[in-house]
Amino acid sequence: MAALIKVGMADYKVGRGPSTLISYGLGSCIGVSLYDPQTKIGGLLHIMLPDSTQARASDNPAKFADTGIPLMLNDVIALGASKSRLVAKLAGGAQMFAFANATDIMRVGNRNAEAVKNILRRNGIRVIAEDTGGNYGRTVQIDLDTGVYKVKTIDRGEKDI
Amino acid sequence: MKDEFDLSPLQLDALREIGNIGAGNSATALSQIINKKIDMNVPKVAFVPIEAVPDLVGGPDVIVVGIFLRVYGKAPSNILFLMPQKSAFYLVDTLLGKEKGTTQSFDAMDESALKEIGNILSGAYLNAFFNFTHISMLPSIPAMAMDMAGAILNVVLVQLGQMGDKAMVIETEFLSEEEGINGHFFLVPDPGSLGTLVKAVGVE
Predict the structure, then answer these.
(1) DSSP states of B101-141 as a string?
(2) A11 to chain B: which residues are within 8 Å by CB?
(3) Which residues, listed in sequence order, are joined to residue B168 by a DSSP beta bridge?
(4) Which chain A residues are closer than 8 Å to B161 by Cβ?
């Protein structure tokens, strides 16, 4: 039976088809998926922040793009995915509240998206789809049987990327 | 380094008591505005793992209306007032003298009314903090969004996430049973602000 596996904030899960990985209610956070279409192995990571340079040693590495992506990458490869076949998709990175004098931290969504793409590029992973920005929340899921990445919103319907 | 979250039971009690008085002020203000009885529960002062905060309001994908204010001063913080969508609709009906069930989405007037409620609740709440700490905490103008609880909470959690994995939240639930209105009021001190507040209260 196809399992629906929940991925919390600052967390990641890996698996294989026919499982589906889902993460609820992303604002400025980003849901990054990796997928190997041949083995149907993939993962979903829910990051909050672009980089861990200010982090303490005790911090959870899945919270940051720069530490979370390599972790998930290792895990999907360990499961049997081929790095050369892996493709990435990402969604999220919104700015929920519009403030005239928005501080950097309120625009963290943008920085998250940039950081994720840089780190994927550095690891030689292709980004094949993206749905980022805006001022609305997203629930994201990846079907590991098909690689379809679904983005659900409240007022803007849902789409497959 | 001493963890900022490492508070004595007495200090926690002091924060809870200030939260209690602040919430009492807010509930009284809200009750007078809508001319209905408002109950509140004893505030929770809790240290929760950041990823567990959305569960306090029913889960990350529940649709809520959030009113967000940034608090400036010596103890910068964030205030977030979250209401289930239905509660916010009822509240607008009550505030603007419409028949209950009229509001199904928000126009500019409705949003403005809700933001004003956020303003008044925050002012009443922060007043209590000032009385105990003599630290002035000045709220920004409010911003509002209706979306998934997880997405709205992101705004405050990200800030905390930079420094650690835990959030200190002072949380109160407001409830008006006959009106079907309830809401959660969060005061989330920035990293470093909690120490400033506790110190100013003067409890060891």
Answers:
(1) T--SS--HHHHHHHHHHHHHHHHHHHHHHHHHH---EEE--
(2) 51
(3) B47
(4) 10, 48-49, 63
pTM attached to this predicted model: 0.86
User: Residue A160 falls within a domain, yes or no?
Assistant: no
- Measured between alpha carbons, how far is residue B161 from residues A58, A141, B60, B121 in Å? 12, 23, 17, 26
Residue A136 lies in a domain: yes
Residue A76 domain-assigned (yes or no): yes
B111 contact partners, CB below 8 Å, separation of at least 6: B144
Contact between residue B66 and residue B78 where contact means Cβ atoms under 8 Å apart: no
Catalytic residues of A: 29
**B8's tokens:** 């004595």
A161 is a domain residue: no
Chain A residues with CB-CB distance to B under 8 A?
Answer: 8-11, 24-29, 48-49, 54-56, 58-60, 63, 94, 96-99, 105-106, 108, 135-139, 154
Residues of A in contact with B148 (CB under 8 A): 24-25, 27, 137-139, 154
CATH number at residue A105: 3.30.1330.200
Superfamily covering domain B9-201: CheC-like (3.40.1550.10)
Q: Report whether pLDDT(B168) > 50.
A: yes
Instruction: Flag whether pLDDT at B1 surpasses 50.
Output: no
* A110: its two tokens: 């943008």
pLDDT tens digits, residue range B126-160?
Answer: 988 888 888 888 999 999 999 999 999 888 888 77
**Interchain CB distance below 8 Å, A56 and B164:** yes
How many domains does chain A fold into? 1
Residue A119: give the domain boundaries: 4-155
